[in-house]
Amino acid sequence: MPDATRFEYLEHTADAKFRAYGRTIEEAFENAALAMFNVMIATDHVREVISKKIEVTSADMEGLLVDWLSELLYLFDVEQVVFGKFVVEMVKEHSGEYSLSGSASGEPIDLERHEFNTEVKAVTYNELNIKEIPIGWVVQVVVDT
């Protein structure tokens, strides 16, 4: 995995599909969030004005990834905030339950500054995959657009 490869988009007939990479599972989850928001908007133009703390738990790692991305999408939809930076401080398993602690930074949506490409409606379990590889982690996600 070259340093510059944070995520890549894959062919999908109707929705958006991507793989995100990281040296750690936390970094792979961060890059998955970045890839999801880049489906909607050019995140390199998003200022870090607002920071939201995010904590999610799930019965398995796949559910944790879906819950993390879904929570970010919920904040986007309900609070009208677009994010461009993601930090996952910790992903851990304890007593058969997985938890994530992280944050997302961004700014309120400004239609004069933010040009939206595609709307992401939901994160799906379709073709969802999390895999440890010799040089880190790769996650694959399909989002409903």
Strand-helix topology:
Layout: E1 7-10, E2 16-22, H1 25-40, E3 50-58, H2 61-79, E4 81-94, E5 97-108, E6 122-123, E7 129-133, E8 136-144
Antiparallel strand pairs: 1-2, 2-8, 3-5, 4-5, 6-8, 7-8
Describe the structure.
This protein is of the alpha+beta class. It has a single domain (7-144), classed as Archease, Possible Chaperone, Chain: A, domain 1. It has 2 helices and 8 strands; from the N terminus they run ββαβαβββββ. The protein has helices at residues 25-40, 61-79, and strands at residues 7-10, 16-22, 50-58, 81-94, 97-108, 122-123, 129-133, 136-144. Strands 1, 2, 6, 7 and 8 form a 5-stranded antiparallel sheet that branches. Strand 7 and strand 8 (136-144) form a beta hairpin. Helix 1 (25-40) packs parallel to helix 2. It is globular, with a radius of gyration of 14 Å. The model has no long low-confidence stretch (mean pLDDT 94).
Class from secondary-structure proportions: alpha+beta
CATH architecture: 3-Layer(bab) Sandwich
Task: Give the averaged pLDDT, no decimals.
Answer: 94
Q: Give, in order, the helices and strands.
A: EEHEHEEEEE
Number of strands: 8
**Beta fraction:** 35-45%
Helix count, DSSP H or I runs of 4 or more residues = 2
- CATH class placement: Alpha Beta
Radius of gyration, whole Å: 14 Å
How much helix is in the residues? 10-25%
If you consult CATH, what is the topology?
Archease, Possible Chaperone, Chain: A, domain 1
The major β-sheet equals: 5 strands, antiparallel
- How far is the first residue's CA from the last residue's CA? 28 Å
CATH superfamily: Archease domain
Low-confidence stretches: none
The shape, in one word, is globular
Total discrete domains = 1
